[in-house]
Write a structure and sequence with these properties.
single chain, alpha+beta
């Protein structure tokens, strides 16, 4: 497996339904196993925070420890280089994703009928750095 710079074609290989989808500019990578794309993820800088995004293959989802180790390693690297909070939004019904974000140090800070917004302050211990007034606008 190797981590490479993200290319839009990687998204299309993961899910042909994403043919017209292009993530906003930011930092993004893809995980490849030989010529197969296992996942793509990135960060999009916003005013006062960054938004995390990911699309993960069923194959990688079936190997949760590998996925977890990769994300923890990436978050530790970001702790020193990314001073703003990270936000992640997941579907309300996805309990597995919500539990995983909490294990990664994200804390819930917003919710509606379909989505839950999580925030991570830049350390693996979690916590919050955003003012309450900023949360409503960013989530």
């Amino acid at each position: 497996m190797k981590l490479v710079a993200f290319e839009p074609a990687h998204l299309r290989q993961l899910d042909p339904g994403t043919a017209n989808l292009m993530p906003r500019p930011g930092v993004a990578f893809s995980l490849l196993d030989a010529d197969r794309v296992l996942g793509c993820a990135g960060l999009v800088p916003m005013a006062g925070h960054a938004e995390a995004w990911a699309l993960i293959s069923d194959e990688l989802r079936a190997r949760p420890m590998i996925l977890h180790r990769l994300v923890v390693r990436a978050l530790r690297m970001l702790d020193d280089r990314w001073p703003t909070p990270l936000l992640a939004v997941v579907q309300t019904e996805s309990r597995t994703a919500r539990n995983w974000l909490e294990r990664l140090g994200f804390r819930r800070n917003g919710r509606d009928a379909n989505w839950v917004c999580y925030e991570r302050n830049g350390t693996l211990s979690g916590g919050s750095t955003m003012a309450d007034s900023d949360r409503a606008e960013s989530c």
